[in-house]
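User: My advisor, Dr. K., asked me to get a structural model of this assembly before our group meeting. I'm new to this, so sorry if the format is off. These are the inputs:
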Amino acid sequence: MPLLTSDAKGVYPIAPTPFFDDGRIDTASIDRMMDFYHSIGATGVTVLGQLGEAQKLEHTESLEVASQVIGRADKLPVIVGVSAPGFAAMRALTHEVMARGAAGVMIAPPNTLRTDDQIVNYYRQAVEAIGADVPFVLQDYPLTFSVQMSVGVIKRIVDELPSCVMLKHEDWPGLEKISSLRALEKEGKLRHISILCGNNGLFLDYEVERGADGANTGYAFPDMLVDIVRLNAQGDREAAHDLFDAHLPLLRYEQQPGVGLAVRKYILMRRGVLSSAAQRKPAAPMSAVARTEVDHLLARLAKKDPRAGKLVG
Amino acid sequence: MPLLTSDAKGVYPIAPTPFFDDGRIDTASIDRMMDFYHSIGATGVTVLGQLGEAQKLEHTESLEVASQVIGRADKLPVIVGVSAPGFAAMRALTHEVMARGAAGVMIAPPNTLRTDDQIVNYYRQAVEAIGADVPFVLQDYPLTFSVQMSVGVIKRIVDELPSCVMLKHEDWPGLEKISSLRALEKEGKLRHISILCGNNGLFLDYEVERGADGANTGYAFPDMLVDIVRLNAQGDREAAHDLFDAHLPLLRYEQQPGVGLAVRKYILMRRGVLSSAAQRKPAAPMSAVARTEVDHLLARLAKKDPRAGKLVG
Amino acid sequence: MPLLTSDAKGVYPIAPTPFFDDGRIDTASIDRMMDFYHSIGATGVTVLGQLGEAQKLEHTESLEVASQVIGRADKLPVIVGVSAPGFAAMRALTHEVMARGAAGVMIAPPNTLRTDDQIVNYYRQAVEAIGADVPFVLQDYPLTFSVQMSVGVIKRIVDELPSCVMLKHEDWPGLEKISSLRALEKEGKLRHISILCGNNGLFLDYEVERGADGANTGYAFPDMLVDIVRLNAQGDREAAHDLFDAHLPLLRYEQQPGVGLAVRKYILMRRGVLSSAAQRKPAAPMSAVARTEVDHLLARLAKKDPRAGKLVG
Amino acid sequence: MPLLTSDAKGVYPIAPTPFFDDGRIDTASIDRMMDFYHSIGATGVTVLGQLGEAQKLEHTESLEVASQVIGRADKLPVIVGVSAPGFAAMRALTHEVMARGAAGVMIAPPNTLRTDDQIVNYYRQAVEAIGADVPFVLQDYPLTFSVQMSVGVIKRIVDELPSCVMLKHEDWPGLEKISSLRALEKEGKLRHISILCGNNGLFLDYEVERGADGANTGYAFPDMLVDIVRLNAQGDREAAHDLFDAHLPLLRYEQQPGVGLAVRKYILMRRGVLSSAAQRKPAAPMSAVARTEVDHLLARLAKKDPRAGKLVG
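Assistant: The format is fine. Below is the predicted structure of the whole assembly, which you can bring to the meeting.
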């Protein structure tokens, strides 16, 4: 499989890890999910991220999930989350998934980093550990990781580490960060990297207008994200916003920390992608009231997007 | 003026502090803002919160702003933010504003609190400082203050401190917290307190359904918030959601930390309430691109809510 | 090997993991280190703690180190650090080391925990994962983990989880916490648990007087810690303080976060226990000036404790 | 009074604020304390720091305390802590105390700062607020403020803001930071600033050897700190360490966060400087056991330093 490059565009869904109710990995759902991603025009996929409950998998399970996803990915590049408390485990997992055909890895910063130097130094050491030939995605997600990367820090990392090919942009607020990075690029002061946006797509409508290349997030309607990127590329601005706004009430609900994963898995189950919404423990379950709220949001969405209609039996 | 009670309902806008471009306080705008709040059916108002740039005012200015708001409030109860690094300053400001006719005060936790005992103890000491006869609002806003209050901690505070009459609910996610508090109340295990929601109203559509009494936040269309509370009370569920969803793209944009205040002041200026969008330093300004995005959001909103249309000249 | 119980007393050194300069594990030094611990009267040993660079080991290496230590421990109980970002990895490592003869495991809290309920719930889930039959050590180390456990939280964990048999006490300041826990025990409100103190022993002189059962830390003169516990038990208060005070300048130096491990390994190398002071990357190295300071501290200590004299020159 | 310059040396005790048991400010003790500082050879004094319970004073009280200290300081330069949640309050207090004869101000960073740019920008704005003509002390105290300033950040601040004349060095560990700053100075890359050390002097023995100019901390035997600086300047290295080591057991005890202030005030009371050890609420009191421990430490110290003997009645 080809390696990830800084030209990556479009939508790389963050794949959840499907489980049966008893906690076993549901391999049939993995295949169905990958077929779904192919069918909607995803341009890549990321596995073993936070959303993928990576921390609840044993090492061999992580490898199995990654291997199955890679095997079913056909030509889609697969990014594997390899964040780990130590570089030894990060290196081991990286080498194993690259050997199986991964296109690159994603590395989140440990939440103890504070100063600019600490952040840059961490990625320097990570690259030393995994090898400078492995493309990596810089995950900038201060809301969850408590690590704040200024534009200057991202520039230092991009300048110093050629294997950094993508920014998973999840700063919040983050619109100006995209503009600043693209302005540096325009001025010839920063090489081009791919910027794919996370945060469940909460600002994707304007992020693509600011210069982002697409989305890298777990919203349960990745087909809508694909549409947004396409409509924006075509210049159909208002059509993009109309579709986005129709999804925003649900998207916002799904973006809530903790309970968000339960919502996503529930919708993916209702869409026929997953056979169960089960998470491994520890999990933030969805209350009965929350489920009726999600059903309500889906029913309202169905009036505007037939893809939600199909599942409202 | 009557004191704040646990029966408070409706919408208490968080008032910004109007400045001229040179940093002086714009008292004419304060009057206009208060008249605006009266005209839209607000049931109270909160001044000198975070949104009110309280930390950028000198002590005498804080008093002047609070006094003017109270003077123009007529029968609307006025809550004054008195959060301070020390209890001496908190007590002093509390006594001064209560003497001028404030209905109660709002107290945010210092962001160094961690354990349940530390949080409860802090509010115990705060009440000891300001006096048990001053009604206070418990501000639960972990996203900004990094202090996490469990339902158990809120219960302890409500049980122990009778002057706690309102929860400014800004936990995120927070829907289950409202349900849990109201369930405790139903079971007779917790006295009733008013729950008004913040976070710019990002979940107000479902928060009122969960048992919240209204909103206490700074969205630049507080008239919409008033409508949501009213429509929900009338049982017009879908109408409430239709209106809410029309505002959600803008509301979400405004809810961004940092830049959000600039957006709010800009819209309030465009609505004719404030004469300037100026903030005192340090301020997160709104970029030129951001302003075009807000204009775009307003133009789109105007198609659904005539109140946004008026200002799109 | 017998399981760890709440009667544990004395000194359980936190064992470093010996490396060669090229990063390989130095098994001969592990044997020598274990013989050293036997010779000085240690009553147990802890491996794969933070100090043991556990996060820099691959899974199989962790198992090998733990196995060798257990094999050489004779009758000394061995506690294995099993803290992990997810319960799957924690359970796997626990089962493997218990099968090899570990006496119990040590679990540190993830640094995202804030409320009392979150902390108690985490340990509840951890016990569910590793099994209620595995004795575990509760690590209370807010300086490093940013998790603050009140006396009430510790009581809840001890009450609810019978397999919690020891507190690794590293709160700072922490003297009153020991007194509070022992007072609860005296009043019959808390079952007895072993309290062994960390923080390099910085307050061990008074901790044992307050009711601690000993030390569980990495100071490079664990023989001194053994003496302190013994002298205190014998009632030789001033002799205990004289010895402690002689070591305090060095002990304080070694207790510095980051550089502390380099100092410990350097001294253990000079004492002939380790063949190298090497750490795996990422490591905080000791500067040339720091080394002269440590040599200076050792030279001064040698005037009062012959054990430091042996290695000087 | 002359302004603070980057040539400041020696010991600037951090003055506590003396209270009577009923919470009133004890002005006679302020005079006695200032006379004591003169008598021991202090070269300056800092008031209204954290240790001075600045946050528990009302604005007018802060001014009164600062004024009295300045009035009694004779030629000793007085630094006033002006850290505040907003720049308006910081500017107001700064102008008032400078008008009364303060030599400079000390500014701690708000604990929300994370990135290098945020830290530099904060001090840039602070200087804009207080005026570029007011000398200020940069307080680098990550243990309390959670703000980590790298050497690079300090350099940026010193380079950009000429009114930064002193670093209150309280990083921990911090020895290498002193060496790095002095190395930059030697290489001509950084102008000279005064470095006075805090953290109760826990590493002062080596800090002065590394290039620090003295101490700026609250240890209850500032006369000992003066001796250390003098002995080091004279080249009496071992005498300096002997004296320091004699004090270290007590110094370490006093350095504990929270309870440390109670210990300091208690010892200053026993030394006849303060008439009471009272703190304003909220205060971490000293338990009865802790008091016996402090008495024990003083009794042991008295065997080596007659200044402790005098008070052991």
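One thing worth pointing out at the meeting: Chain B has 13 helices and eight strands.

User: Perfect, thanks a lot.
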